[in-house]
Amino acid sequence: MKRMFTVLLTAAMAFMLGIPVVSAQKQVPLVIEPTVMPPVEPILVGVYLPMTGAAASYGESTWDGIRAANEMKPQVSGREIRLFLADTKSDKKEAPNAVDRLITKDKVSAIIGEAFSGPSIAAGPVGEKHEIPMISPTATNPLVTMGKKYYFRACFTDPIQAEIAAMLAAMNLRAKTAVVIVDITHEYCVGLGNYFVSSFTKLGGKVLYTSYIKTGDKDFRTELTQAQAAKADLIYAPDYYTEVALLAKQAKELGINIPIMAGDAVQLNDLIKLGGEAVEGMYFTAFFHEAAMATPLGKDFLAFYKKKFNKDLDGNSAMGAEAYFVLMDAIQRAKSEAGPDVREALANTKDFEGLFGKISMGEEGNMVRAVVINQVKDGKFTYVTSISP
Q1: Pairing of strands 206-213, 151-153
Q2: How many CB atoms lie within 10 A of CB 232?
Q3: Per-residue pLDDT tens over the stretch 192-216
Q4: Beta-bridge mates of residue 46
Q5: Which residues, in sequence order, are bridge partners of residue 51?
Q6: Of the candidates 29, 227, 250, 381, which lies 20 to 30 Å from 326 by C-alpha distance?
Q7: Confidence bin at 294 (pLDDT 50/70/90)
């Protein structure tokens, strides 16, 4: 009786104190419901390039590099990087529309592109308006990023490229006079030509005159015979590969042996396919050569690209990948996909070990990096040297 009283008293006290009473005869199993984690959302990145039209070969090459880099590094901080591609149709008037679609329709957090300076200049204000960071792989004209808070570039600028080209002309080729033949259709060509004139003149060289051509022109005999009559030591052609290849072929046909030097826009295999023996010996400033890819990332990407596409890596593909890796590094450091956060991280890029070596973001969103000097030799692009600014 006393024991029963004690049990009842204990139960009553437990009830009053809110302590659950567990029967000794029957244990109730404890069931823990599994926690359902929300799905991890991907980070959306836009790409805008000329995939159709006259400049499609540049766009296709750049896109190959970007998507190969994306396959190599498909995630940042455990989140998938999902790419959206918009075609600018080789038209700078279409570029702002392409960027607007990526931002308003696809809801991207950052954008890679464009490959050319003209479309990049035209589309820049759209990214600024929406505070979406953009990085161009190969647009070298200073106006692309000048005065922009959200536009960056992975490549060097035309003033740097022109300075190195002028040094090569004056010191290595011993040129004292030069003629410049510029494609007036493109901001890139006009800008690079003007910067070369300035740099070559500062080194004591004399630019005899500048001739202007247009994309699609087929006959350059007048410009070439004028250069020969002026006894120029060098023809500087800061133009795209089609025009430069035709220029070289017609010079050879006319028996004109004036050396022709070009800029980064000629580094596609189509230059050699179109120009053949006429482009043999040509020097040009460039972003890339396989021999300059000495970093672990560079070597890994080179092997991955060749295995994926079964072809050699070219300059536009390499720089497309470089822009992708720089952007991924910024997103990772920002620990955010918000535009202002990624912009801040891009601006603070320092000593990032890219495909070719350590690179850092300088003023006005301009990457500080070496300029590669290449030469066409034995029907292929041959590495000469790299020069840091």
Answers
A1: unpaired
A2: 23
A3: 999 999 999 999 999 999 999 999 9
A4: 84, 111
A5: none
A6: 381
A7: confident
